[in-house]
Amino acid sequence: MCCRVPLTRGKSARQLLQERGLFEEYRRKFPYNPAAKFLPRNEQSVVPMTYDLDLTYYGVIGIGTPAQSFKVLFDTGSSDLWVPSTRCNSSSCEDHAKFNSSASSTFRAGAEPFYISYSSGFISDLFVQHQIFGLADIDAVGSVPWDGVLGLAFPSMSLEGGTPVFDNLWNEGQIPQNMFSMYLSSSVEGSMFILGGTDPSYYTGNISWIPLYRGANFWNIHIESITINGNTVACSASCEAIVDSGTSVIIGSNKDINNINGWLGVIPNQYGDVAVACTSTDLLPDIVFNIHGYSFALPPSAYVTKSAAECRTGFVVSDGTWILGEVFMRQFYTVFDISNNRVGFARAV
User: Fold this and answer.
1) Is the Cβ–Cβ distance between 91 and 20 less than 8 Å?
2) Model pLDDT, residue 115
């Protein structure tokens, strides 16, 4: 184990927008399509943005010389690094840090769209030289609690054509193992992004290792089935899933998610949100993900989100592949092992 970046669980965009009375307006303006960033490259012409109302975890990095600090989402579902630019005049950038290229002695501008740029940055006590990153000068961050995104998927998925930050750290010999891990706490403080290894203080038992499924582009794994009380309720013929820290919930096909919600006795609204009675959540069953011979049980305390206004399940319909997001990763400490093309899960403390 080498270095770590503390993660803060801030207010979600949903909470911030509800406080401002703008939630319904934004939900209509920005339809939720969590699978957008996983589309094949030939279907993408720009860096894909997903407006996820419930993402909350972020950590602080520095870019440039001297370092300029940014709160970023550590996203295993993308491979690029980007932050807002001082060129952004949109109102959505007002509450965010913006990179001032003229204040950095190591900044070198690129010629590609999206203002791809070269500079030096730091994560904790680690320094990366000649890191490609994007500068956003349009409405890209909205009402989210973080400033930008640091991608942790594989280099082949970089739309900027650069080497991701973590791969540069490994290539420069700055970390002892070619892996990173995440502990996502339910509290505001206490979450951790660990570079170069694992930390047993964040999990109990052994790590269950899952080989990557069908190559190494995203963090894909193979789910054998999903069961409730021993009954198969989803992925009856198995299915592929992406482990993604950049998605707040668990995403699945229309048929499977509706079947799971049916077993829970709930029906989605027009936006895909599924409300449950807060007084009866303890009566809901565990939902078990059977993966590579292991069983990972999600209790209702893990998949039901409680707020001041309502309780909602963490299962959402999408036309794309299955995605195991924060709802799953809060229950299971997650290790991303690049050298061995595998993902590890252990029960989080």
Assistant:
1) no
2) 41
